[in-house]
Amino acid sequence: MSERPPAPEPLPHPVVDNHCHLEMALDGSDVLTAEDVLSASAAVGVPRIVQIGCELESARWSVRVAEELTGIVAGVALHPNEAPRLAAAGTFDDTWAEIQELAQHPRVRAVGETGLDHFRTGEEGRAAQEHSFRLHIDLAKRLGKTLVIHDRDAHADVLRVVDDEGAPDRVVMHCFSGDAAFAEACLERGFWLSFAGTVTFKNAGALREALLVVPRDRLLVETDAPFLAPTPYRGRPNASYLVPHTVRFMAEHRGEDLSALCRAVEENTFAAFGGGW
Fold this sequence. Notes:
single chain; alpha/beta; about 45% helix; globular; Metal_Hydrolase
């Protein structure tokens, strides 16, 4: 694994990394402990993290770490690419039953990431993927928790399914990947749009156009760590302490005061996931 990037200059006001996979690493050899991540990220103005577990073992782990560390809350789900594999193995129902139990934990603020992925799942798995997505939407509504949506190459179908089922009160589009028109469609439905390091990539012109149409009160920021490290560290291991690079880019691109944007992102995250952690 590549060497981790250095810490950036601290932000002028705290923000929350609303989507992180602390238990993962690009090659499995360099997983920081949750305490390490919190310490490093808090030092640069990112003292809170939403830890996402999107297969059964990581969901269990996410609940445990959220119990242990006050700076972390959890989201649990079956990833869109996990659902077809479980369905093919005949283990989806049993696994889903435990995810539903884990989702009821008070330190679990979100059901997700769930959604649709047409990049990695082919036609043969999409029915199972959509079935799983619908179950997650229902669970989020029944429990009154935030729905975190994974959408890869599936914009129209994601909106179709959400419209069919009816959206929960709080919906976050994780690692937003659409253009300005899709952003507008999500905003019309009252979603929050979360931007990751991808918005800093040179080839992300459409994504940067989307960033400009999002009202300040609907913006969130995330890492999706250990993936998607922002420029100038693209391809290196990502972690929550690198959020300031993305936030600074967002503020500059939108022509906004950095401190004001940080305050808005923090307030938005608490509105989307609930405060008090």
